[in-house]
Amino acid sequence: MNKIIEKVNLSENVVRMVLEAPAIAQKRQAGQFIVLKINEKGERIPLTIVDSDAQKGTITIIFQIVGKTTAQLAGMKAGESLQDVQGPLGNPTEIEKFGRVVCVGGGVGVGVVYPLIVALKKAGNEVISIIGSRTKDLLILEKEVGENSDRLVVTTDDGSYGVHGFVSNVLQEMIDKGEKIDRVFAIGPVPMMRVVCDVTKPYGIKTIVSLNSIMVDATGMCGACRVAVSGKTKFTCVDGPEFDGHEVDFKLLANRLKMYCDQEREAYEKHKCGCDGN
Prior knowledge:
Elements: E1 2-11, E2 14-20, H1 22-27, E3 33-37, E4 45-53, E5 58-64, H2 68-74, E6 81-82, E7 84-89, E8 100-106, H3 109-122, E9 126-133, H4 142-147, E10 151-156, E11 163-164, H5 167-176, E12 183-187, H6 190-200, E13 207-210, E14 226-229, E15 232-235, H7 236-239, E16 242-244, H8 250-257, H9 261-273
Parallel strand pairs: 8-9, 8-12, 9-10, 10-11, 12-13
Antiparallel strand pairs: 1-2, 1-6, 2-5, 3-4, 3-7, 4-5, 13-16, 14-15
């Protein structure tokens, strides 16, 4: 059992939780994730580890309410416990001194890119962060990202805050101005990551993305999280979650993410009306 130490609502549908997980806190590195299960009959879901405190034995996760399980998780309170928390899983981010690095985060993906920003800055890189959301109210971790970046640019789709437009627009402007960029990390919705990769590919700027494919056992056995990279099948749980974005088949990824949308929507609606017995 893993106790919830703290719970904070970052926006209407985004929650930050601090969990008691001493073994994971000791070993976790930037880019890795956990798989948690709320109760004995619960669904196993993967969530990125945003932060950790080895001395306190805690890890921090950020998640968006998108279905029944995340809604159940958001409904829990500090002091309650989760059935299982497995991790750290996946390969850590390749962290070294690249030079000038641009970290791009969209929506809840800002929470996933944040630990990379911290680690890259500690490694001596010049870190430029571009984070965005649909509206100002949905923006998360602006203060934390800004404190660990040499430069921060914020965008909103509707222009309610920061630059009016998309994170990819800001990146394109940097390239057009001739700014030197040694590596890009892009994390967020699949369309956003695909567009960022389309922007950087003509200029040969290596771009790393973190994929959120459907996952079940997280050990490479079930094959549910398979993705196509350079025309070869890879498993996000053991080969990723990070890949060279210029080699990812984003169309296939997007199609696979839609496979169970109807079932997820039905389960979520039943949960909201209390028709599922949970």
